[in-house]
Design brief:
- The protein has 14 helices and 13 strands.
- With 340 residues, it is of the alpha/beta class.
- It has helices spanning 14-21, 34-47, 58-69, 83-86, 91-94, 112-118, 149-161, 173-180, 184-188, 214-226, 235-247, 252-267, 291-300, 326-339, and strands at 2-3, 51-55, 75-79, 99-103, 130-136, 165-169, 193-197, 208-212, 273-274, 283-287, 303-304, 306-309, 312-316.
- The longest helix is centred in the C-terminal third of the chain and has 16 residues, at 252-267.
- The strands form three sheets. It has a seven-stranded mixed sheet, sandwiched between helices. A four-stranded antiparallel sheet has the order 9-10-13-12, covered by helices on one side. A two-stranded parallel sheet has the order 1-11.
- The structure holds pyridoxal-5'-phosphate.
- Pyridoxal-5'-phosphate binds at residues 57-59, 83, 136, 140, 169, 171, 197, 199, 208.
- Residues 57-59, 83, 136, 140, 169, 171, 197, 199, 208 line the site of pyridoxal-5'-phosphate (PLP).
Length: 340
């Protein structure tokens, strides 16, 4: 089976597991797990923030950020296809009491004009308070598109002028870093909260790290406890993250090359409508008539893909997808297009 359904499908390598098994650990809840502390320091440095907190999932990073930033009734401005809006049970609303002002943007990228048109005039007690601008780097259901740091600077300016916070869902921030060639801290400069996922392209089985100011992280710790995210010997988990940052970060460009090669091949198959722009990172989305049917047919050919919408297939390249697997995937698609 060739698995292109998600970059979460990777299995930890034997080397990663060895490092995890040998981790030096302590009680994470009382900040005495040396490996967790080392991972948090590493990510805080990487993202140019004062402090960081280790959490089991990226979903919890998003949720805790909104719990800290928002009062019930506050509004979050985000892309309509943002993961926080369509794929996390709207935890921001269900648990933080915030509502959304979604921006319709297929790529997941939006400009300051779109933000300004979604910011409410201050009418305390009547309109929700516009509180957070949420950025997704890279844009998952937007096809792995990348926010340029210059675009982020404009967003940061609008946020500051309107006393709003900027949050970055950085599930694939490091893919953006590799694509742009600019350091991670250049991407997170305007962000009050930002995080990266260890379980996506980095190939860990779990874990995410949320970064921000000292004050922000202090409040995040309260929510980590309340939500049951404060752990014990979590250093075994964190060790995988440290290993991945060292070994699986720079290689992300291989995943991007593979996505580009898949795009080039698929664009040449008659009947398939690929986007006009090739993918920038590791996510490739293309149109078919019936995505669920197409997914089932591909599965029969031994290729697992995702459905991004009723007419959109999503493929995500990753650590366990090799260049040798490109030709069989293209052959499978070709076969389906010929017979259906
Ligand atoms: C995967 C993902 C998340 C959630 O991360 P988990 O670690 O799976 O909870 C959030 N945002 C985006 C864009 C993602 O792709």
């Amino acid at each position: 089976m060739i698995n292109l359904s998600s970059d979460t499908s990777t299995q930890p390598s034997p080397e990663m597991l060895k490092v995890m098994a040998k981790a030096e650990v302590g009680d994470e809840q009382v900040k005495q797990d040396p490996t967790v502390l080392r991972l948090c320091e590493t990510v805080a440095d990487l993202l140019g923030k004062e402090d960081a907190i280790f959490l089991p999932t990226g979903t919890m990073c998003n949720l805790i950020s909104f719990l800290v930033h928002c009062r019930p009734g506050d509004e979050i401005i985000a892309a309509k296809n943002a993961h926080i809006y369509r794929s996390e049970g709207v935890g921001a609303s269900a648990l933080a009491g915030a509502c959304f002002a979604p921006i319709d943007t297929p790529s997941g990228i939006f400009d300051t004009q779109a933000v300004l048109s979604h910011i409410r005039a201050a009418r305390p007690g009547k309109s929700p308070r516009s509180r957070v601008i949420a950025i997704e780097q890279t844009t998952n259901f937007g096809g792995g598109d990348v926010w340029q740091p210059s675009q982020l600077a404009h967003i940061g300016k609008v946020a500051a002028e309107n006393r709003m916070k900027v949050h970055m869902d950085g599930a694939r921030l490091l893919n953006a870093v590799v694509y742009s060639g600019l350091p991670a801290h250049a991407h997170t400069l305007v962000c009050d909260s930002s995080w990266l996922d260890l379980s996506k392209g980095l190939g860990c089985p779990f874990g995410a790290v949320l970064a921000g100011s000292k004050d922000f992280i202090e409040e995040a710790w309260e929510w980590k406890f309340r939500l049951g995210g404060a752990m014990r010997q979590a250093g075994y988990m964190a060790a995988g993250g440290l290993y991945a940052l060292e070994h699986n970060f720079d290689r992300l460009h291989e995943d991007h090359n593979h996505a580009r090669q898949l795009y080039d091949g698929i664009a040449n198959i008659p009947g398939i409508n690929v986007a006009t722009m090739p993918p920038k990172t590791n996510i490739l989305i293309f149109n078919v008539d019936n995505a669920h049917q197409f997914q089932q047919l591909l599965l029969k050919e031994g290729v697992k893909v995702g459905v991004a919408a009723t007419n959109k297939i999503r493929m995500v390249t990753h650590l366990n997808f090799t260049s040798q697997q490109i030709a069989p995937v293209l052959q499978a698609i070709q076969k389906i297009m010929q017979h259906n």
